[in-house]
Amino acid sequence: MKDRIAKLDALQIMDTAPEPEFDNIALVAKSLLDAPVALISLVHRNRQWFKARIGFDPTETPINQSICAHALQETELLVIPDLQLDPRSRDNPLVMDAPGIRFYAGAPIIVDGTAIGSLCVIDLQPRPEGITEAQATGLTALAAQVSAQIASRQRERGLLDKAEQENASLNQALRRSAALAQLVDAIEETDELPELLRRGSGILASVIPSTRAGFGIVDVTRETVEMQPEWRADGVPSVAGMHHFRDYGSYLEDLKRGEVVIIPDVETDPRTADSADALLAIGIRLLINVPVIQAGRFSAVGFVHSDRRAELSDEDASFIRTLADRMQAAIQHKRMQEERNLLNRELIHRVKNTLALVGAVARQTFRGTDESGRVDAFLQRLQAVAVANELLTQENWEASNLHAVITRAIAISGDAQRIVLDGPEQRLGSQAAISATMLFHELLTNSMKYGALSTLEGQVSIRWQLRQDGPHPALRLVWTESGGPAVIAPENHGFGSRIIEMGLAGNGGSEVDFAPSGLVARFHADLPELGA
After folding, report:
1. How far apart are CA 517 and CA 176, in angstroms?
2. The domain 398-530 is classified under which CATH number: 3.90.1150.10, 3.40.50.740, 3.30.565.10, 3.40.640.10?
3. How far apart are alpha carbons 338 and 344 in whole angstroms?
4. Against a cut of 0.70, is the pTM above it?
5. Distance in angstroms (rounded) separating the CA atoms of residues 117 and 7
6. Domain 2-158 has what CATH class?
7. Cβ–Cβ < 8 Å for 128, 82
8. Bridge partners of 428?
9. How much is the average pLDDT of 148-159?
């Protein structure tokens, strides 16, 4: 019996709608035996259900009224000429009472070696002579047709199920890919940890069936979590507020270790079974917790809840952990950025203080001497170094932008209204950024003292472009002054001249033309030399 019930359950044929293929077979069986009733009967645990019925109104009967159940004990056709005389059927309510059936002939329906029911023909009159050999052969053949139809139906359903599963898997994979893309956007757009946790939990809830998603702030010493206002499905109560982890199970230790907690059913998981009532009371049957570890300490948790048990596959669990790992990596990266920015701000503050101290010492040392001009030039160069350091601090000491370097130098040394900048975006490494800042500070200072910017009509043009003249892409920059006094080449070759000679990257690549119409300085540096 167990094999029969298991087979019927696997076939999923019980209680399905009528189908012409089966109805036609029953009609042929009725005609073959010239009887008023023909049935395709499937016998389950406590009932027989009729997939097809001709001349019989009930769709099913209790198992104690099933004569077909006796047919399942036979491997061949079962024929009972008079049901009132056979000990197997004489006490059957359908024989003793209405409709008072008297004759039965049934052939077993066998699928994959298991008899699951019979194709039977019934008469209200006894047939002492039974049935002919031709009728027996025909009824057996029709039963085999029923078996073949069921097997064909099973194969078709299997193909459909496989196609549906493949489509479902593809759709799920697409949803997961979209969720990861959304998480990347959230990471790029979000600086605050609470907002990132909120969005990350919502993204996870869009893939895993859920009724609630959000995050909580953890006090690991008190073993509490303060749930923040969360996303909820309609009619689902909020869990915002303070909660003690131990009131809901023993999974806190997993979270402390940074492990993602995935519990498809709180009643069956050993970590929550003893606390299942408390979880179910607030609408949690599925529980997913994603811990946030900061400085080695469990500090926050993203969560997804559902009030229904979820059948989570290995792919689901892997996706949840992948999403959690990316969130954790993003949080750690943002934390490192915050710490680095704090350190950089402290560093630039200390650098400025040091440079200010050096300036003060210089003034005190040369007070009352005729070196005040040189002291002023020295202090201006110190200021240029401070500006370069501040610019690099804003860029995390990784790189800066050529346009920004020039603009900062102009801000402290020149008149921006009379300086034209023209060139593409170009990144500079940290060393090149400092060298370039010192270079433009020196050029601007000289122009303000002796060149084009020393008059109201003078102008400076700074233009640059990328070229591919040699083995590496190179930056070529031209500084051109016009409208100023006649240019005279300096007699002395001092520190300022050496800064200009060092060029953009601090290793040469410069050419200066003291043309009478205005200074022209050309600079060349391969991009690798610029740290770009």
Report:
1. 66
2. 3.30.565.10
3. 10
4. no
5. 11
6. alpha beta
7. yes
8. 400
9. 74
Q: Read off the amino acid at residue 66.
A: S
Q: Count the residues in the chain.
A: 532
Q: Say how far apart CA 86 and CA 459 lie, in whole Å.
A: 123
Q: What ranges do the domains of the chain cover? A: 2-158, 190-312, 398-530
- 28 near 121, Cβ under 8 Å? no
Instruction: Label residue 151 left, alpha or beta by phi (over 0 means left) and psi (-120 to 50 means alpha).
Output: alpha
* pLDDT digits 0-9 by tens, 79-128: 999 999 988 888 888 888 888 899 999 999 988 888 888 999 999 999 99
CATH architecture of 190-312: 2-Layer Sandwich (3.30)
CA 229, CA 202: separation in Å to the nearest integer?
13
What is the distance between the terminal CA atoms of the chain, rounded to a whole angstrom? 78
d(C-alpha 143, C-alpha 2), whole Å: 22
- CA 203, 208, 213, 215 torsion: positive or negative? negative
Cα separations in angstroms, 134 against 102, 125, 337: 22, 21, 90
Residue 361: CB partners within 8 Å, gap ≥ 6? none
Tokens linked to 432: 């090149």
Q: 249: left (phi > 0), else alpha (psi -120 to 50), else beta?
A: left
Tell me the sheet residues that pair with 302.
Answer: 215, 290
pLDDT in tens, 389-446: 555 455 444 447 888 888 877 775 556 788 999 999 888 887 788 788 778 878 887 8
**Location of structure tokens 């969720």:** 179
Query: Which run of H or E residues covers position 428?
Result: strand 427-429
Closest among 482, 498, 348, 470 to 420, alpha carbons compared = 482
